[in-house]
UniProtKB/TrEMBL annotation:
GO biological process: lysine biosynthetic process via diaminopimelate
InterPro entries to which the protein is assigned, alphabetical: ArgE/DapE, ArgE/DapE_CS, Bact_exopeptidase_dim_dom, Peptidase_M20, Peptidase_M20_dimer, Peptidase_M20A
Protein name as annotated: Probable succinyl-diaminopimelate desuccinylase
Co-factor requirement: Zn(2+); Co(2+)
UniProt entry keywords in alphabetical sequence: Cobalt, Hydrolase, Metal-binding, Zinc
Top-level lineage group: Bacteria
Family named by the database record: Belongs to the peptidase M20A family.
Length: 448
C-alpha cells in the first residue's frame, strides 16, 4: 500500500491514515511475525553481551527500507542502532518527536535440556511465537521496527519525527546502551517515548520501582574443617546471619508521596485481579533477593571469605540511601562486619503521570485495539525507562508477552499480541504526532 492508496480511501486526514496503517498491519502480519522470528533466531545473550549480528540485521533492515541507520558504538562490543523518519514537519520548532525503543539483548537460555523446543526457534506454532526473546523483548522490538519502516514506506505525513532506537546492554543493567545514547545527545528533541517492553495486553506500565543492588564482602579466619566451630571463624556462617538479617529490609515503611497513593492502589488491584499470584505488596515494600553466594575454598577448610550480591527494588517513598543505611544497621545488630559496596543497577522510583500526552495517547490506542478498559499500572522491576525519565523524556512501556515465561524456559508470546501491539504503536505515532497536509508549508518544510 502507498500514500496514494491511503488517499484513495478518502483523503490524507489522520483517521484515513489510521485505517490505512491498521489495514496494512493486518495484511502484512505474516511479514511482521517473520521479522520477530528472524530476530529471535539471532542469539544475543547477555551476558556475555550483545552479538553484533543482531545489530547488523536491524541496521540492514532499516537501510533496505530507505531509513538511514546510525550504528552507535556503546563500547565494549555493544552496538546500538537508531534511525529517524522525519515525517512531514520535521523542522517545525517546538514540535513533538516520538521515540519507539527496545533492547536487542536477551537473557541466557540456561539449561537447554529443559526447553520443550529449540531456544532460538523463532517460529509460530499453534498461535505462539516461540524462543528466547519472544516476550522479552524481540517481538516488541520487531513491532516498533516494523511500524517505523511502514510509516516511512507509506510516507505518512506525520506532524513530527519518529526515531527508532534499538539498544544493547539492557539485561545486565549496563551503561553501554540507552545511557550512552542519552549521554551522547542522540535523543535531543525527543518529547515522548514508548519502550516495547513486555506488559499485560491491557496495561501499559507507566512507572517503576527504584533499584538498589549491592555486594557484601564478609571475612572470617580459616581453620581445619575437622575442628569447626572450635577453630577458625567461618565467613559462610557469618554470611548466613547476614542473609537472614537483610530479610528485614522488607519491613521498611515508605513515606508514600500523596500523588502516588492512587496509582499504587490501582496497581495493587491490578495484581490482585489479573495476575496468578497476589504480590501487590511489592509496590509499597522493599523487596530483597540474595542473588549469589560465593564463599570458601574447599569443603575441609573453614571459609575465610564469603561474597553476597543483593538485589533490592525500592518503592516510592524510600530512597536507595535509606536501604543501604538500614542494611548496615541490620548487619551491626547481628554482629556481622562486612564491606558493603553498591554494584549494578541504581535508580530511584520513577514514573510518567497518566495525564502526560504520550501516556494518554497510548492508553487510548490500547483501549481501541485490545481492551476497552485498559489503564496504566506501575512495574515492580526496572528497565531503560529510568534513563528516558532522567533525561526529562516522558515514557511508558507496552509490548507483547506471555508474562509467566519471561526469563524462563519455553519463552513465548501469542502471535496475535505481536500484531495488536504493532497496531497500538502505529496509532500512538499518528495520534501523538498528528498528520499534516503534505502540500502545506509545514509539510513541505519536512520533505525538502
Amino acid at each position: 500500500m502507498t500514500a496514494s492508496g491511503a488517499s484513495s480511501r478518502g483523503g490524507n486526514g489522520r483517521r484515513d491514515w489510521e485505517r490505512a496503517l491498521l489495514a496494512a498491519i493486518d495484511e502484512r502480519s505474516a511479514e511482521l511475525l517473520e521479522l520477530a522470528g528472524a530476530l529471535i533466531r539471532i542469539p544475543s545473550e547477555n551476558p556475555p553481551g550483545d552479538d553484533p549480528a543482531v545489530s547488523d540485521f536491524i541496521a540492514d533492515y532499516l537501510d533496505g527500507r530507505g531509513l538511514a541507520a546510525v550504528r552507535h558504538d556503546g563500547g565494549e562490543g555493544r552496538t546500538n542502532v537508531l534511525a529517524t523518519y522525519p515525517g512531514a514537519a520535521a523542522a517545525a520548532p517546538g514540535g513533538r518527536h516520538l521515540a519507539l525503543a527496545g533492547h536487542a539483548d536477551v537473557v541466557p537460555v540456561g539449561d537447554r535440556s529443559r526447553w520443550d523446543f529449540a531456544p532460538f526457534a523463532g517460529d509460530v506454532v499453534d498461535g505462539w511465537l516461540r524462543g528466547r526473546g519472544a516476550s522479552d523483548m524481540k517481538a516488541g522490538l520487531a513491532g516498533v521496527l516494523f511500524v517505523t519502516a511502514l510509516l516511512a514506506e507509506l510516507r505518512v505525513p506525520l506532524g513530527g519525527p519518529v526515531t527508532f532506537v534499538s539498544v544493547a546492554d539492557e539485561e545486565t543493567g549496563g551503561v553501554r546502551g540507552l545511557p550512552r545514547i542519552v549521554a551522547d545527545g542522540l535523543l535531543a528533541g525527543v518529547t515522548g517515548a514508548v519502550i516495547a517492553e513486555p506488559s499485560a495486553p491491557g496495561n501499559p506500565t507507566i512507572g517503576q520501582k527504584g533499584s538498589c543492588q549491592f555486594e557484601l564482602r564478609i571475612t572470617g579466619r580459616p581453620g581445619h574443617g575437622s575442628l569447626s566451630p572450635l577453630s577458625g571463624v567461618s565467613a559462610n556462617v557469618k554470611a548466613a546471619k547476614a542473609i537472614m538479617a537483610l530479610q528485614s529490609l522488607f519491613d521498611i515503611t515508605p513515606d508514600i508521596p500523596e500523588e502516588m497513593a492512587e496509582i499504587i492502589a490501582v496497581s495493587k488491584e491490578y495484581v490482585r485481579t489479573r495476575e496468578p499470584e497476589d504480590f501487590g505488596a511489592a509496590f509499597d515494600h522493599v523487596t530483597v533477593n540474595i542473588g549469589t553466594v560465593h564463599g570458601g575454598t574447599a569443603i575441609n577448610v573453614v571459609a575465610d571469605t564469603c561474597v553476597l550480591t543483593v538485589d533490592c527494588r525500592v518503592p516510592f517513598g524510600v530512597r536507595r540511601d535509606d536501604v543501604l543505611a538500614e542494611a548496615r544497621r541490620l548487619l551491626a545488630e547481628v554482629g556481622v562486619e562486612a564491606e558493603l559496596v553498591e554494584r549494578g543497577s541504581r535508580s530511584e522510583a520513577n514514573w510518567t503521570p497518566p495525564t502526560d500526552p504520550v501516556v494518554d495517547t497510548l492508553v487510548g490506542a490500547v483501549r481501541e485495539v485490545v481492551d476497552p478498559e485498559g489503564y496504566g499500572v506501575l512495574q515492580w522491576a526496572t528497565s531503560d525507562a529510568r534513563w528516558f525519565r532522567q533525561a526529562g523524556i516522558p515514557v511508558l512501556q507496552y509490548g507483547p508477552a506471555h508474562l509467566p515465561t519471561i526469563h524462563g524456559f519455553n519463552e513465548r508470546t501469542r502471535a496475535h499480541q505481536v500484531v495488536d501491539s504493532a497496531k497500538v504503536y502505529a496509532l500512538t505515532a499518528l495520534r501523538y504526532l498528528d498528520t499534516v497536509d503534505p502540500g502545506s508549508a509545514a509539510g513541505q518544510k519536512g520533505t525538502n
